[in-house]
Amino acid sequence: MQEFDLVIIGGGPAGLAAAVAAKEQGIENLLILERENKLGGILNQCIHNGFGLQVFKEELTGPEYADRFINLVKEKKIRYKTNTMVIDLSKDKLITAVSKTDGILTIQAKAIILAMGCRERPRGALNIPGARCAGIFTAGTAQKFVNIEGMMPGKNLVILGSGDIGLIMARRMTLEGAHVNAVVELMPYSAGLTRNIVQCLDDYEIPLKLSHTVTNIVGKDRLEGVYIAPVDENRKPILAEEEYIPCDTLLLSVGLLPENELSKKASVKLSPITGGAEVDEGRETNVDGIFACGNVLHVHDLVDNVTEESYIAGKAAVKYLKGLRIQSDRIEVKAKDGARYVVPKYINPRNIEKSLDLSFRVKDIYKDHYLSVYFDDSRAIHHKRKIMAPGEMQTVKITSEMLNAHSLCSEISIVIEKE
Amino acid sequence: MEQRALICIGCPMGCRLEVTIENSQVVDVTGQSCKIGNTYAVKECTNPTRILTTTVEVENGYPEVASVKTERDIPKGKLLECVKELKKIKLTAPVHIGDIVLEDIANTGVRVVVTTNCDLVDK
After folding, report:
1. Are A147 and B65 inside 8 Å of each other by CB?
2. pLDDT, tens digit, for every residue of A380-400?
3. How close A198 gets to chain B, by Cα (Å)?
4. Cβ contact (<8 Å) for A47 and B83?
5. How confident is the model at residue B4 (pLDDT cuts 50, 70, 90)?
6. Which residues of B touch A198 (CB under 8 A)?
7. A64, B97: Cβ pair inside 8 Å?
8. Domain housing B24
9. Residue A357, domain extent
10. Which of A71, A145, A183, B87 has its CA 20 to 30 A from that of A93?
């Protein structure tokens, strides 16, 4: 059995940033475990640009962003193992992993950072009726085929769901010579970033059909076409208005799910809303010494935000290892009226040096509404925001002065208010 | 005087811009959070441009294709022409981030560079 101070599970953007932060704070004996043959995670297949504006103040593509961190890991001589899949994790921080070169590995860690990312919601989770034919892919799978393997999954497409990967793939497939008939979205608004509607759909005149869904899939061996229909306010398809679109490929971009099977084995408590762990301000879970960051904690829109969150987790893990984290007197943070969830769920005010960013998502589109933060019944923040949409993560800063001024408060809540 | 509503694509914030155009000239921009919004609004209303990201075939490499980008933004109307030109190119592994694929794509005067590392593999 090997022993490490800190083991980071996952070598994508979250794991790399957490490792760099931990090493910078003086932890030498740390290890990154990655199941793919290369560090960098999903960034390696995200060849589009728009990454890094916050962290590096320049616009990079996914592989370039990953490369910056891979180089830091190498420069700082942080140990990592690729092609290594963690298969078990206990709450005592005992890790079991397998790899072709090492066989079965057992590792005892003093602290662990969960950075396994997320995976795509598959067809099976949607209950679309129709044929079980070839030609139905998640958008990320298609992205890997095109951008890594250099293969086209199809020529004539319909995309169900307007998540960012679906929008990005609409443009990507068009550039590669395929025809994208439409992006079909169940909700009355897009799940993706507005800029991606502009530069991925509008630029190529790809229709976005809001409040529509796929009602039937037709094909014997290979997909031949799909039926789509508008939906009513209860999201029930209006079958009288059904329309047939011939196509050979259906891509699904219908949501991402944090990949927390290992966390469950370690008795980490998960939020039913985010699917990720319930954490405090240092991103520590309910299990002593186990931290989580990135998309395994909650799905982010931007890698820059993943990096920043992972720095927080990396630094907090070091404080934990040095015995400097304060665990007592935590305040619960709640998402109320209009807010769907907030991260972190708990705050230990004595761990906050200057300020703390709360990340949250709203339930619906809110135009010219106020974002308010209450300490019990006392409103400390009341900001007007032009637009808040479920597809764009919001942040709000609370300061140590506010925490000091409400030192006896029992809960902090985020509320979306009309006035 | 003409008003145009745009969404800035300069960064993922997606600022909603209100542009005032007079005699085909942008005279006012509101709604931006930074100066990228101004530049974007002027360009989008006069000569819209985009950065192109796509892939180029690589012999004996993994990934099997190398991701590439135009070093600067190019006219929007030239995107598909540029992709066609890049389809004719085949690189040989290994290739590295920053390697130059083309000095001047489709007479835009813009370079195309590699954005990933493709290792040489035995097949």
Report:
1. yes
2. 999 998 888 888 899 999 999
3. 7
4. no
5. confident
6. 7, 9
7. yes
8. 2-46
9. 329-419
10. A71
